[in-house]
Structure formats: C-alpha cells, structure tokens
Amino acid sequence: MTEELNMGLNALWVMLAAILVLLMQGGFILLESGSTRMKNAGHVAGKTIFTLGLASLVYWAVGYGLAFGGEASDALNKFIGLGNFFFTPDIASVDNGLPNSVFFVFQLAFAAVSLSIAWGGFAERAKLSSYLIFTLIFVSVIYPVVAHWIWGGGWLAADGAQDFAGSTVVHLTGAIGALAATILLKPRIGRFNKDGSANVILGHNQVYTALSVLLLWVGWFGFNAGSTIAIGDGFFGFVAFNTQLGAAAGAVAAMLISWLVNGKADITAMLNGALAGLVAITASCAFVDPWAAVVIGLVAGVLVFFSAKFFEKIKVDDPIFALSVHGAAGIWGTLANGLFATEELSAKVGVGQAGLFQGGGWGQLWVQFESVAVCGAFAFAASFIVLWVVKKAIGFRVTEEQEIIGLDLSEHGSYGYPEQMKKAGTNA
Amino acid sequence: MGTSSRNRLLLDIASAGDPESLRVARERVMKALEPELYSLPAVTEIVTLNELHDALIARALVLAEKEVARLGYGAPPVPYAYMLYGSGGRYEQTMHSDQDSGLVYGDTASEDDGEKNRRYFLLLADKVVQYLILLGYPPCDGNVITSNPEWCLSLAGWIRKIDHWIDDPDWENVRYLLIAADGRAVYGDKELADRLRDRFYHDMLDHPSIAQRMLDNTLRHKILVGVFGQLLTERYGEDTGSLDIKYGAYIPMVNAIRLLALQAGVRETSTLRRIEALRMAHLLSEEEAEEAEEAFVLFMRLRMLASVSEANGQWSGSGKVPAARLTKEMIAPLKKALRVGVKLQKKVQKELQRGFGGR
C-alpha cells in the first residue's frame, strides 16, 4: 500500500515536471519570435509547434529506443541503446516502479527542448524543409546518442560524467546544432558590414523576450527538480533551491557586467544572463552547495555577456544568443561540476566523484571536460554533415528576396502580423 | 591660418553687396579653413572660424536691413540686437552649425508703435534667416530661430517671457532657460542684450531651485568613459568604434561649466571664458581650471575634426570621432580628459546639493 502510494506520488511529480518542460516550448516561441523581426514572427512561432509534433513521432519511433533501449549487448550499449522502437509503454506501473509512459513523456520533453535550442542558429533565413530534415536526424540519432552516453548507461556514464539535468546533453548538444547551422547558413542580410563592423538587428518585442525568460525559468523547475525522477526523501526541493539561486545570480551578474562595460544596463544581456545561470546550474543543481550555485550563476552571467561579444567579433550571427546561452554556459556548467561537486552529494546521486575544490582532485574535472569535448565534437560533426548535405542537395537558405520579404510570406503565405506588415509594405 | 588671409576674408565679407556675393565669401571661408580642420585644429583656428561666422551673420543683417528698406519699410524703427544661442552664443561654432538665434528690440510707449515694430522685425527676421539659409546655415531643428515670433520680441516681451519660464519651470521652459544662458548679441545694440541678461541673472539668483532643474535637464548625456576607464564607443553600424564626442564629451562639459558659471553669476557665454572666470572667482582651483580647460580644448578640437567626414570632405556633422582617428596617442589624453569631465559633473552635483547661492 505504501509502495503504491509512493509510486503514484513519484509518477505524479515526474508527469508534472514533464508538463513544465513541455511548457518551456512556449518560452522558446516567445524567446525566438521576440528576438527576431516582425516579418518572420508567424514562421518562427509556428515552426516550433510543427517540429515539436514531428519530434514526438520521431522520438517515439526511433530516438527513445537508441537512448534508453535495453536490448543492446554490453559492448554495443557503451555507444548506443537498442530496443523499444515504436515504443509501447506498459499500461500501468510494474512492481511499483515509475511508469515507463511517464518516463517517456519526460524524456521526450527534454529532446524537444534540445531541438528548439538548435533553431536559434536557423532563425530568419533557413528553409522550412531544412527544419523538417534536421528534426528527423537530430531527434532520431544525434540527441539520443549523447543522451545514451551520459544518461542511458553509455560509456561516459561509466566514466562517471555528472550532468544532472543536461547542461551538456540538452543544452550543449542543441547549441552545437545551432552553431553548425549558423556557420553553414552564414549571417543574416545586413548583420555585418563590408568593413567588418556589426549592425544590431533588434528583436521586434522585448516584452515577449522577457516573458519567455520567465516561462523558461518556471519550466526549469520541472527540468532540474523533475530529474530526481522521484519525490523520495524530498531531495527535489534542494535541487529546485539551487536552480533558483543559479538563475538569480546569472541575471544579476549579466545586468551588472553590461552596465560596467557598455555604460548602459542592457536588458537583452540581463535576460541572457538569467538563462545562462539556469543552463549552467542544470548539470550541478544536485551536486553542489547553495553558495556554489550562486558562484556558478554569477560566472555564467558574466560569461554569456562576453561570449556574445566574442561571436559577434568573429562574425558568427547568433540571432537568439543560443551559442552563448546554451553553448558557453552549458560548457561552463558541466565543467563547474568538476570544481564544486561535493562528496556527500556525489555519493547521494551516485554517478561520479567530488570536484576539485571539494577535495576530489582533478579526476572529476577531467571526466567533465571529456564529456564536453566528446559530446560537443560528435554533435558538431553529425549536425554539420546533415546540414551540409541539405545545403548541397536541396539548399539550406531561402533566397535573398525571400529573406527580405520575410519567411512568414515566403514559407507560409501569410504574415504573423498582417496589419503591420501590410502597412510597412505600402510605405516601402 | 595667417592674419593676412583672415583679414582678406573679413574684407571679402564686409564688401559683399548682395546675398549671392556673401555666399561666395562664405565658400571662400570654408575652403580656406578646410585643410586646417582635417588635422586637429588649434584653438586659434576655432576662434578665427567664429570671428568669420560672426562677420558673415552681421553682414547678412546689413544686407537684410537694406532689402527691407528697399521694400519700403524704412530703417529699423528702434534699436535692436541680434542674438546667437547654442554654439554660436558660446563662440564654439563648427563649420556647419545651425542657426540658433533670436532678436530683441527696444520698447515703445504706444501700442500702435509696438505692433508696427513687431511687424518690421519679423520681416527683417524672415529676410535674414532666408539669407543665412542661402549661405549654408540650416535652420534650427528646435525652432529656436529669429523667424519664430516667440524668439523675436521687444525687451518688455522678453522680460515677460523669461519671468514666465522661471515661474513655471517645466522641462520645456528649463530647456529654454538653458538656451538663453548662452545667448549673446552678435550684431546691433549690445546694451539691449545686456539689459536682458541683467534680468536673466537677477531672476536666476532669486530662484535657486532653477539650478537643480537645469541639472536634472542635462544629466541625460553621459560622459562616454566607463568605470574601468574604457572609452564607450559606438558598438554597431557604420560608426562602429567611433566616439560620440559631441554628446558624450563636449555637451556634458558645456552643461557642467554653464551651471557652475550661472551659480556664480558669471556672465561669459564661452565655455573657456567661463572656466577662466570661475578660476578668478576661486570657484575652481588653479588645478581644476587648468584640467578643465585642457579637457575642453581637446573636446572642442575633436568635435571640429568630427564635423568633417574623411571620405569626400562633405560636412557630415555626425559629431563622432571616427575609429581611425582614435589612435593610441589620442586615446590616453582623451581618457584623461573624459575623467576630468566626470569629476566636474560630480562637483556640479555636489555644489548644487549645497544650495544655489548658498555660499
């Protein structure tokens, strides 16, 4: 009886977390459309829902099996899972374990978040067809492979890689997809001048962007605290606690650093800082003391500011700041685990060791570095190849004319903001 | 530029018999000064340029008077003074400054005469503004210009206006007071202008709260140096890497010095002369005055330089020093000057906390 009650409560919590993570797609819709121009708003928002649908089918058919299928031989399982393709879950809990239907929905929501992060590199100039093809490959192979290595009993898990809720698995993998895309697409028209200077292409609605950060922030409690997969002894509360501190420190640090460096407190930088704090604390939220969560968030907030400057300097167009927010902060968060993870919490979670500053020596930091490097390299190579083939075979970027009139019209035939865009058209 | 070429230009201007020849004279002025402005111009060049601007405007008035007389309206019925505001008022015009101007004329006893005078001077104002546009002085965006009836008034009218501004110091009126503070007569009866300024300073000293309002009105423009001492340059667009010397250095400095001068009852309108007067009055120490002067001269020279676009010698007036001009040798003194500006702004704020006229 008690066990059944426990199972029910655990299932309820993980299901709630899955719903929260799914709702983060609303955050991505507002983040991406708010940060881009009006003429692309309908496309940017709508394609998120379309690819969420497609990703769900692909993950059900293939992705989940490669990430978590238990039928591979021990040797093969180091690299990839097998089984559970076209997954049919049990209709109820088996032996009072977490129902695998709930686990699937939770994991699917993570895969979809990673995919939506990658869209940051596609924004405002990729053909709709490229979204379709990339979803197929990313959700069936690229993301599941990384997830398997770290979470599905793969070789990095065996090495003790600690990535509690996915600074690397979800965020870095998505950001690397964005990087490959933005390199192949090249910058948007008008982003850089011939003399090498940059222009700012302002998003059309800063309120959307701010609201998106709040949605993501709240959703993140499902993301991180839900990753305990159980209510158990109440540990999920501690994880949520650290998550809040990391996000808060990121927002504050980014606002202050932009103020100090640019002379004006920059809203976009601050919003990126909050997200960077969340991304960075994701790997470590179950492994570190609260003070370390604050340090991780503060560093992430400063890092994301300079990272955005860096990408602009090397003329990589990153419209939604995905490379800095999810990439740079994802790497930092993963490495920070190797610095700040405590012995007690590492033992509790039961994957790896304590970090460098907690008397654990260099071992854990090395494993963290290894996971970042290997996963980053794999995700980049795979994404680059897929998108390179797309580019050669059917073309990756819309024509100049289509880009100028906007993807709402070129890809879908109607504007997200019909009145405003018609007005703009008659003025031109 | 040598004295002889300056005198030749002044002679050209004084002998121009019609607006078209005056326009040619102005072109000659521009051509003569252009090469000096490509390099960092010295203060003497800026002084010379302002003398020449004054002479051009004065000559335009002589021609306008003649034209109005030719149209049958006779000579000016009462004495008047033609006022310059803004950079013209401060003797700090660049090659392509706007017209910021006003006109004050003598009072009459009868109302009929008053109306007649009003019509005469508005006509004169229209003429001279037209001539100056022809000469290449664009009208002021903010409509602070003699042809605007609000800026072309009898002495009594002006006094009423200044009193009104001071009694009702909303944002707009405080802006006008700030403009009026830099006003000076460029032509005509200087005594009229002095009487107007007497009233202005008298009112200001009677209303210490105005200074605080003035400060609030001018804090918007930040000096472009960051907390780490870094230059805050343009981050995007064609002007990437350039420094907005006009609004990020020159104007904040003008504002700070103006406030100190007003507070001390200093009546000079040129920023450099204000600094000097503040030094004489011991309101700036020798060291502060020297620093401030050095910083301001650098800003003024850079602003002059920024008014020339490198590519084709057009007067672009961006007010921004191009990145290419911000050489290593330039950056160190510039940073130092900007820090002096920040220090001065802080001093002004502190002085105001102690209360206007409260010493």
From TrEMBL, chain B:
Domain Protein-PII uridylyltransferase N-terminal: 49-170
Gene Ontology molecular function: [protein-PII] uridylyltransferase activity
SUPFAM superfamilies tied to this protein: Nucleotidyltransferase (SSF81301)
InterPro entries hit by this protein: DUF294_put_nucleoTrafse_sb-bd (IPR018821), GlnD_Uridyltrans_N (IPR005105), NT_sf (IPR043519)
DUF294 domain sequence ranges: 211-351
The protein's name: CBS domain-containing protein
Organism expressing this protein natively: Cohnella terricola
